[in-house]
Amino acid sequence: MYTTLNSIAFGWYPYLCAIVCLLGSLFRFDREQYTWRSGSSQLLRRRQLIWGSNLFHVGILVIFGGHFVGLLTPIWVFDMMGISHGFKQVLAMAAGGIAGLMCLVGISLLTHRRLFDPRIRANSSFGDTAILLILFAQLLLGLATIPISAGHLDGHEMVKFMNWAQAIVTLQPDAANYVLDVHPIFKAHLMLGMTIFLVFPFTRLVHIWSAPVWYLGRRGYQIVRSRPGNVRAPVAARRMPAVPPIQPAE
Predict the structure, then answer these.
(1) Strand runs labelled E in the chain
(2) End-to-end CA distance of the chain, in Å?
(3) 48, 155, 173, 250: least buried by Cβ within 10 Å?
(4) DSSP 8-state symbol, 24
(5) What is the reported pTM?
(6) Tell me, what DSSP letter sits at residue 9?
(7) What does the H/E/C string look like for 84-150?
(8) 78-125: per-residue pLDDT in tens?
Protein backbone atom coordinates (compact mmCIF):
# COMPACT_ATOMS: atom_id res chain seq x y z
CA MET A 1 0.00 0.00 0.00
CA TYR A 2 2.77 2.43 0.93
CA THR A 3 4.65 1.66 -2.28
CA THR A 4 1.52 2.26 -4.33
CA LEU A 5 0.84 5.64 -2.72
CA ASN A 6 4.47 6.59 -3.18
CA SER A 7 4.24 5.63 -6.85
CA ILE A 8 1.11 7.74 -7.33
CA ALA A 9 2.52 10.75 -5.48
CA PHE A 10 5.99 10.78 -7.02
CA GLY A 11 5.51 8.81 -10.21
CA TRP A 12 2.17 10.00 -11.65
CA TYR A 13 1.38 13.25 -9.83
CA PRO A 14 4.38 15.14 -11.33
CA TYR A 15 3.06 14.57 -14.85
CA LEU A 16 -0.45 15.67 -13.88
CA CYS A 17 0.96 18.90 -12.44
CA ALA A 18 3.12 19.54 -15.50
CA ILE A 19 0.26 18.96 -17.95
CA VAL A 20 -2.16 21.20 -16.03
CA CYS A 21 0.51 23.90 -15.70
CA LEU A 22 1.33 24.02 -19.40
CA LEU A 23 -2.13 23.50 -20.90
CA GLY A 24 -3.80 25.68 -18.27
CA SER A 25 -1.40 28.52 -18.96
CA LEU A 26 -1.99 28.28 -22.71
CA PHE A 27 -5.77 28.20 -22.23
CA ARG A 28 -5.74 31.20 -19.89
CA PHE A 29 -3.52 33.22 -22.22
CA ASP A 30 -5.82 32.43 -25.13
CA ARG A 31 -9.16 32.98 -23.39
CA GLU A 32 -8.51 35.36 -20.46
CA GLN A 33 -5.71 37.72 -21.41
CA TYR A 34 -7.14 40.55 -19.32
CA THR A 35 -6.45 38.48 -16.20
CA TRP A 36 -2.84 37.80 -17.27
CA ARG A 37 -1.16 40.15 -14.80
CA SER A 38 0.58 40.28 -11.44
CA GLY A 39 -2.12 42.46 -9.87
CA SER A 40 0.19 44.95 -8.17
CA SER A 41 -1.11 46.90 -5.17
CA GLN A 42 1.79 49.36 -5.16
CA LEU A 43 -0.45 52.42 -5.02
CA LEU A 44 -1.96 51.28 -1.72
CA ARG A 45 1.21 50.66 0.29
CA ARG A 46 4.41 51.25 -1.63
CA ARG A 47 7.36 51.07 0.78
CA GLN A 48 6.57 47.68 2.29
CA LEU A 49 5.83 46.30 -1.17
CA ILE A 50 9.22 47.39 -2.52
CA TRP A 51 11.18 45.75 0.30
CA GLY A 52 9.06 42.62 0.34
CA SER A 53 8.92 42.20 -3.44
CA ASN A 54 12.65 42.72 -3.99
CA LEU A 55 13.69 40.34 -1.22
CA PHE A 56 11.17 37.74 -2.33
CA HIS A 57 12.00 37.85 -6.03
CA VAL A 58 15.78 37.81 -5.57
CA GLY A 59 15.53 34.92 -3.13
CA ILE A 60 13.08 32.89 -5.22
CA LEU A 61 15.17 33.31 -8.39
CA VAL A 62 18.27 32.01 -6.61
CA ILE A 63 16.29 29.10 -5.14
CA PHE A 64 14.69 28.19 -8.46
CA GLY A 65 18.00 28.39 -10.30
CA GLY A 66 19.71 26.28 -7.66
CA HIS A 67 17.00 23.63 -7.78
CA PHE A 68 16.97 23.58 -11.58
CA VAL A 69 20.73 23.20 -11.94
CA GLY A 70 21.20 20.99 -8.90
CA LEU A 71 18.46 18.51 -9.73
CA LEU A 72 18.61 18.32 -13.52
CA THR A 73 22.36 18.40 -14.13
CA PRO A 74 23.51 14.82 -14.76
CA ILE A 75 25.59 13.37 -11.95
CA TRP A 76 28.45 12.51 -14.31
CA VAL A 77 28.89 16.22 -15.06
CA PHE A 78 29.70 16.94 -11.40
CA ASP A 79 31.97 13.90 -11.28
CA MET A 80 33.80 15.05 -14.40
CA MET A 81 34.30 18.52 -12.87
CA GLY A 82 35.64 16.98 -9.66
CA ILE A 83 32.77 18.28 -7.51
CA SER A 84 31.97 15.80 -4.76
CA HIS A 85 28.43 15.09 -3.63
CA GLY A 86 29.28 16.26 -0.13
CA PHE A 87 30.59 19.63 -1.32
CA LYS A 88 27.54 20.07 -3.54
CA GLN A 89 25.23 19.41 -0.62
CA VAL A 90 27.03 21.86 1.67
CA LEU A 91 26.94 24.49 -1.08
CA ALA A 92 23.23 23.88 -1.61
CA MET A 93 22.56 24.17 2.11
CA ALA A 94 24.49 27.44 2.42
CA ALA A 95 23.23 29.16 -0.73
CA GLY A 96 19.71 27.79 -0.33
CA GLY A 97 19.61 28.81 3.32
CA ILE A 98 20.63 32.41 2.62
CA ALA A 99 18.29 32.75 -0.36
CA GLY A 100 15.52 31.03 1.59
CA LEU A 101 15.81 33.47 4.49
CA MET A 102 15.75 36.43 2.09
CA CYS A 103 12.70 35.01 0.41
CA LEU A 104 11.03 34.26 3.74
CA VAL A 105 11.51 37.84 4.98
CA GLY A 106 10.16 39.18 1.70
CA ILE A 107 7.09 36.97 1.61
CA SER A 108 6.44 37.72 5.29
CA LEU A 109 6.24 41.42 4.44
CA LEU A 110 4.00 40.71 1.45
CA THR A 111 1.72 38.44 3.46
CA HIS A 112 1.49 40.94 6.32
CA ARG A 113 0.40 43.80 4.06
CA ARG A 114 -1.99 41.49 2.20
CA LEU A 115 -3.72 40.27 5.36
CA PHE A 116 -3.56 43.22 7.74
CA ASP A 117 -4.01 46.25 5.51
CA PRO A 118 -7.80 46.73 5.14
CA ARG A 119 -7.58 48.39 1.71
CA ILE A 120 -5.28 45.74 0.25
CA ARG A 121 -7.31 42.93 1.79
CA ALA A 122 -10.48 44.38 0.25
CA ASN A 123 -8.81 44.42 -3.19
CA SER A 124 -7.37 40.90 -2.91
CA SER A 125 -8.96 37.78 -4.30
CA PHE A 126 -8.95 34.39 -2.65
CA GLY A 127 -6.26 33.25 -5.08
CA ASP A 128 -4.00 36.19 -4.21
CA THR A 129 -3.99 35.29 -0.54
CA ALA A 130 -3.95 31.53 -1.03
CA ILE A 131 -0.85 31.48 -3.25
CA LEU A 132 1.05 33.66 -0.78
CA LEU A 133 0.24 31.26 2.04
CA ILE A 134 1.19 28.24 -0.08
CA LEU A 135 4.53 29.79 -0.99
CA PHE A 136 5.06 30.73 2.65
CA ALA A 137 4.48 27.11 3.73
CA GLN A 138 6.77 25.84 0.96
CA LEU A 139 9.60 28.11 2.13
CA LEU A 140 9.19 26.91 5.71
CA LEU A 141 9.36 23.28 4.55
CA GLY A 142 12.42 24.03 2.45
CA LEU A 143 14.24 25.65 5.36
CA ALA A 144 13.19 22.73 7.60
CA THR A 145 15.06 20.33 5.30
CA ILE A 146 18.41 22.01 6.05
CA PRO A 147 18.90 20.46 9.54
CA ILE A 148 17.94 17.07 8.11
CA SER A 149 20.41 17.50 5.24
CA ALA A 150 23.10 18.38 7.78
CA GLY A 151 22.88 14.80 9.03
CA HIS A 152 23.76 13.47 5.55
CA LEU A 153 26.76 15.54 4.52
CA ASP A 154 28.03 12.79 2.25
CA GLY A 155 25.45 13.94 -0.32
CA HIS A 156 23.84 10.52 -0.63
CA GLU A 157 20.33 11.88 0.01
CA MET A 158 20.73 14.61 -2.57
CA VAL A 159 21.69 12.02 -5.19
CA LYS A 160 18.30 10.37 -4.64
CA PHE A 161 16.48 13.58 -5.52
CA MET A 162 18.70 14.14 -8.55
CA ASN A 163 17.96 10.64 -9.81
CA TRP A 164 14.23 11.12 -9.16
CA ALA A 165 14.01 14.47 -10.98
CA GLN A 166 16.01 13.26 -13.97
CA ALA A 167 13.98 10.05 -14.13
CA ILE A 168 10.75 12.09 -14.22
CA VAL A 169 12.07 14.28 -17.03
CA THR A 170 13.23 11.28 -19.04
CA LEU A 171 9.91 9.43 -18.48
CA GLN A 172 11.33 6.48 -16.57
CA PRO A 173 8.53 4.33 -15.04
CA ASP A 174 10.39 3.57 -11.78
CA ALA A 175 11.19 7.18 -10.86
CA ALA A 176 9.21 7.06 -7.58
CA ASN A 177 11.46 4.32 -6.18
CA TYR A 178 14.33 6.78 -5.78
CA VAL A 179 12.46 8.70 -3.05
CA LEU A 180 10.70 5.77 -1.44
CA ASP A 181 12.60 5.96 1.88
CA VAL A 182 13.47 9.67 2.16
CA HIS A 183 12.46 11.77 5.18
CA PRO A 184 8.76 12.85 5.30
CA ILE A 185 9.79 16.52 5.38
CA PHE A 186 11.42 16.10 1.97
CA LYS A 187 8.33 14.35 0.64
CA ALA A 188 6.07 17.12 1.92
CA HIS A 189 8.38 19.69 0.30
CA LEU A 190 8.23 17.84 -3.02
CA MET A 191 4.45 17.39 -2.89
CA LEU A 192 3.75 21.03 -2.13
CA GLY A 193 6.23 22.14 -4.78
CA MET A 194 4.44 20.05 -7.40
CA THR A 195 1.08 21.38 -6.19
CA ILE A 196 2.30 24.93 -6.85
CA PHE A 197 2.75 23.94 -10.50
CA LEU A 198 -0.74 22.43 -10.43
CA VAL A 199 -2.43 25.68 -9.29
CA PHE A 200 -0.03 27.87 -11.30
CA PRO A 201 -2.41 28.67 -14.21
CA PHE A 202 -5.20 29.75 -11.86
CA THR A 203 -3.18 32.35 -9.91
CA ARG A 204 -1.22 35.51 -10.52
CA LEU A 205 1.90 33.39 -10.94
CA VAL A 206 1.21 33.26 -14.69
CA HIS A 207 2.97 36.62 -15.00
CA ILE A 208 6.23 34.64 -14.73
CA TRP A 209 5.75 33.60 -18.36
CA SER A 210 5.73 37.29 -19.31
CA ALA A 211 9.08 38.23 -17.77
CA PRO A 212 10.15 41.40 -19.67
CA VAL A 213 13.45 40.02 -20.95
CA TRP A 214 12.96 41.84 -24.28
CA TYR A 215 13.78 45.13 -22.54
CA LEU A 216 17.44 44.06 -22.43
CA GLY A 217 17.89 44.46 -26.19
CA ARG A 218 15.44 47.26 -26.88
CA ARG A 219 16.70 50.66 -28.06
CA GLY A 220 16.24 53.36 -25.47
CA TYR A 221 14.20 56.46 -26.07
CA GLN A 222 13.28 59.56 -24.12
CA ILE A 223 9.95 61.31 -23.87
CA VAL A 224 10.23 65.12 -23.66
CA ARG A 225 7.29 67.19 -22.52
CA SER A 226 7.04 70.96 -22.91
CA ARG A 227 5.69 73.23 -20.23
CA PRO A 228 2.23 74.72 -20.85
CA GLY A 229 2.52 78.18 -22.37
CA ASN A 230 6.07 77.64 -23.64
CA VAL A 231 5.25 75.64 -26.73
CA ARG A 232 7.30 76.98 -29.63
CA ALA A 233 6.23 76.82 -33.23
CA PRO A 234 7.90 74.22 -35.44
CA VAL A 235 11.13 75.30 -37.09
CA ALA A 236 9.64 75.01 -40.58
CA ALA A 237 6.79 77.30 -39.59
CA ARG A 238 9.11 79.88 -38.05
CA ARG A 239 11.27 80.06 -41.18
CA MET A 240 8.37 80.33 -43.61
CA PRO A 241 8.31 83.83 -45.19
CA ALA A 242 5.29 85.96 -44.57
CA VAL A 243 2.74 85.97 -47.39
CA PRO A 244 1.11 89.35 -48.09
CA PRO A 245 -2.66 89.41 -47.91
CA ILE A 246 -4.57 89.15 -51.14
CA GLN A 247 -6.07 92.48 -52.20
CA PRO A 248 -9.65 92.38 -53.47
CA ALA A 249 -10.04 93.16 -57.15
CA GLU A 250 -11.52 96.59 -58.05
Answers:
(1) none
(2) 113
(3) 250
(4) H
(5) 0.76
(6) I
(7) CHHHHHHHHHHHHHHHHHHHHHHHHHHHHHHHHCHHHHHCCCHHHHHHHHHHHHHHHHHHHHHHHHH
(8) 888 888 888 988 998 999 999 999 999 999 988 888 887 777 777 777
